Amino acid sequence: MDSVVIRNGTIVDVEKMRVFEADLAVTDGVIARIGPGLCGYAVQEIDAAGCMVTPGLIDHHTHLYPMSRIGIPGEAVCFSSGVTTAVDAGSAGCDTYEDGFWTLRGGKLEVKAYVNVCGTGLDSLPEQTEDVRPERMDAGRLKELFARHGNELLGLKLRTSRNIVGELGYRPLKAAVSLGEKLGVPLMVHITDPPGPLDTLFSLLRPGDIVTHMYQNTGFNLLRGGAVLEEAYRARERGILFEAADVRAHFSFEVCEQAFCEGFFPDFIGTDLTKFSMFQRPTTFNLAMQLSKYTSLLV
């Protein structure tokens, strides 16, 4: 007897890149059968007519509690939107990571993380922004952290907004890239309202580094003269990756629609949810809403 049979759904097979209508049977937590009109009994049957049946989703940009005070309750928020893996995008730094992450290890939500180059991460928010002065980036402690927890750490994180870096400009970015090079890990860089043109920012990054909030429209953005920057295309050709993570202030339909017209799509999609934005309209709400938004923009 199957544990669950999901009937009449639209199956999204990401391994074979196909979408089709069928039933799906689960036995002891493992997919046992897929096919039209499956016979047999099940403890539970779910009618998924008009719904999509997918593997567990990955939210590539979250802020989880207790990694930071502004974080969301991971399982409560993620599971309700089909997310089974969440990536914390720099909530904690080398001084705070281990204190926060140990509470997440025993849960059912799979968690990975980027480590903030600021030792205390985002723990000072919302009262004040993080300290990103290059001389405060602790290469030694970060190296130790990656040596101990490399299986759960994906890279480094820096926010390079004008209100954070101030007169330092792109100095913190240069230092963070250098640090990533020494550690052999990628850097995720937040680009909303950057301190200078994005072509300069792109030129500083390495293959594998990630630009997040790609469709933001505060200060310098992805467009110039109504079209996507030529430097953005060249950055992508060099192996720079792009992430859409919208939250409340990091998305513009004007920028996104033009980028979609040109086929400049994200490599990753995340929410950037915090306790101030989870389940809030008309902002990010959750990952399912983000997927619906981007899907509708393709039509």
What's this, in brief?
This protein is of the alpha/beta class and 299 residues long. 25% of the residues lie in helices and 29% in strands.
Distance between the termini: 41 Å
User: Which regions contain 5 or more consecutive residues with pLDDT less than 50?
Assistant: none
User: Superfamily at the CATH H level of the largest domain?
Assistant: Metal-dependent hydrolases
Category by helix and strand content: alpha/beta
Q: Which percent range describes the beta-strand content?
A: 25-35%
Q: Figure out the total of helices.
A: 9
The total number of structural domains is: 2
CATH topology grouping of the largest domain:
TIM Barrel
Q: What would CATH call the class of the largest domain?
A: Alpha Beta
Query: In CATH terms, what is the architecture of the largest domain?
Result: Alpha-Beta Barrel
Could you characterize the architecture of this molecule?
By secondary structure, the protein is of the alpha/beta class. The chain folds into 2 domains: 2-53, Urease, subunit C, domain 1; 57-298, Metal-dependent hydrolases (TIM Barrel, Alpha-Beta Barrel), CATH 3.20.20. It is 25% helix and 29% strand. It has helices spanning 74-78, 97-101, 139-149, 162-165, 171-183, 198-204, 230-237, 253-261, 287-298; strands at residues 2-13, 18-27, 30-35, 42-47, 52-53, 57-62, 83-93, 110-116, 153-159, 187-190, 210-212, 223-224, 227-228, 241-245, 268-270. Strand 10 (187-190), helix 6 and strand 11 (210-212) form a beta-alpha-beta unit. The longest helix has 13 residues, at 171-183. The N and C termini lie far apart (41 Å). The model has no long low-confidence stretch (mean pLDDT 94).
